[in-house]
Amino acid sequence: MKEELRSKILKTVSRDKAFYFFTSIGNYTGESASSLKEFMDKTNAVDVKSLEFHLYRGDFEKWIAEVLEDEDLAVEIGRLRSLNYSGSLLRNNLYSIVAKRYRQLIGSFSEKFR
Amino acid sequence: MKIKNDSPALDSIDIEILQNLQEDSKQTYTAIGERIGIAHSTVYDRIRRMEKYGIIKKYTALIDVEKAGVKRIMAIMTVYTDPKESESVADALRKMPEVLEAYTSLSEELLIIAKVVAENQESLHNFIATSVAPLSGVLRIRTSMITKKFKEIPFLLMNERKK
Question: Are residues A16 and B77, on separate chains, in Cβ contact within 8 Å?
Answer without folding.
Answer: no
